[in-house]
Amino acid sequence: MESDDLRKRTDTSSTAFAVTSSETLSADGDSTSKEVIHSRPWLKWPVAAYEPKKYWTGFLLRFAVLIALIAVLIGIGLGLRYTDGIPDHEDFSQMQFDWRVDPSSYLKPFNESFQYNTLLDGHAHSTYSDGRLNARQLLEWHIANGYNAVIVTDHNSVHGGLAVEQLALKEYADKITVIPGMEYTCCRIHMNFIDINETVPVGPPVPSDEDLRKAIERVHALGGLVIVNHIPWSNTTEYGYELPRLPNHPSVADLIDWGVDGFEVVHQDTFDYPTFQTTQARNLIQMTGTDLHHPSVAANVWLVVNAVNNTRKAIMDEIRARRTSFLFDPAGTPQRAYPVPSKKYALLSPLLTLGGYFGIFYSDSKGMYSFQGTFCHPEKLQVHKDVIGWFIFWVFIGIIAFELVRLLILVTWDVMVRRWRRRRANIMGLDE
Read out DSSP for 157-184? Predict the structure, then answer.
């Protein structure tokens, strides 16, 4: 009798559980499935899986949230990409140059019999324009690489050169001499105006021949020299355009007619031999320069003079008299200094990376910068429709994969819950 009573209570509990489970999981209240559910509970799908209206409502909501999220990420990424004032990804504040190069120990002057006591860099930039080193760091980099003189030529302004000169006179007078200048920078030509104390007006971005002649005359009126910079670099084809980097660059012959004093015959690791031959034939100044912007580059060339003393005037006297030669190492010095990653940039880098990623949807080419707020080539905006199409394709693949995984998790969870409830019901029935 006791076993019959126990069996009846167990059957009654199981039946009650099946009815409750069915009523809970079935939205349409179909009682005809109770017996099937009681015998085969694993056939019961989650509510969202067998109610199309509820599933598609949830799906459209999830899809809308995903699209909104992608739109927000695109807006943030591309917005930051065109935002001014973003921290630099490199931190130059702790730069040190703890080496000393003696180029005289392994290099001979181009004119091997030339005697010299001054090693000069004729082209360098500071943070007053687009250089990465401040005035002190600029001096220390040059001292480390064997220079005892430098011409500081920031873009379109002499202020950087004057500031570095003042620092050198106060704290580095026995180590290095600074000659201030500026790099006249536009879409046609780059010229160094050296040994001047005031900025020569620059403009427009694409000056006429007459504009260039007036600028040259102004430099001479200030007692300075005009050196035409890196002709091979200027005439190199700009990427994405079948045009030179600086379109419509004046010819060497025209520049000589306009009164320039010389040419940069060695620029970084490039020896402009045709222009060098012209300077020899026309008795023009032969200038060399590192065009230093970033400290991780090598020192390749040193202009050498034999000055009566290491002063600005004495060095310039030798340059004006064309009594110069140079040391040239195409491979460059092996010593390098590298900045550390910026902590401020790291804070924003996850968001800034979005700009790089979503930037694959288009190309926006503007060519060479004029350093006057414009660019030197026609803008080319190209939307990569194929990339956008594949992005959408993979988004949909991701959505399908997510829905399948979600369904699998719901089914698994539902089966586990019902099994647990059935065991619990059985145990409660046995206890009674």
Answer: -SHHHHHHHHHHHHH-TTT-EEEEEEEE
pTM as predicted: 0.81
pLDDT band at residue 202, thresholds of 50, 70 and 90?
very high
Retrieve residue 52's tokens.
């199309």
Q: Is 237 helix (H, G, I), strand (E, B) or coil?
A: strand
pLDDT of residue 50: 56
Which tokens sit at 55? 């599933």
What's the token pair of residue 369? 């910068």
Residue the block writes with tokens 């060095």? 315
Confidence of residue 21 (pLDDT cuts 50, 70, 90): very low
Residue among 200, 332, 196 at smallest CA distance from 266: 332
- Residue 179: exposure state from Cβ atoms within 10 A (0-12, 13-18, ≥19): buried
Domains assigned to the chain = 2-66+408-427 (no CATH), 97-341 (3.20.20.140)
Tokens of 103: 């180029």
